[in-house]
Amino acid sequence: MDRLHVFLVRAVFGWMALSGALHFLADVASQYIRRIRVPGPETTLYYGLHTAYAWGHIAFGALGLYLVTRATPVMDERRLLLMSGVVALGWLAIAMGFMEYWQPKANAVVLCAMIVAALLTR
Prior knowledge:
mainly alpha; transmembrane helix
């Protein structure tokens, strides 16, 4: 197994988990603690969308990190990275369609680029 490939696969899932945690802290916890948004249905939808988006990143990234550390041959599976690519494209579609900030969009693009890089080093 190529060391660059191992590094990139771990970086993909680590980035997913870390960016999900940071997204939750910045867009949900921080705004809730500072009471930025007026209570109401729109605020509930905002917090719900961003919470689901962020925790999806955290869960998928943590599961991927667990798989690649416990079952190292899984890193050679093209299916793992292809499935991760489909998930990243889904997150990109959600970010483009429903999120007004540019950071989640940029994060999804970086994630897609990292997955492509990991696929090319296989």
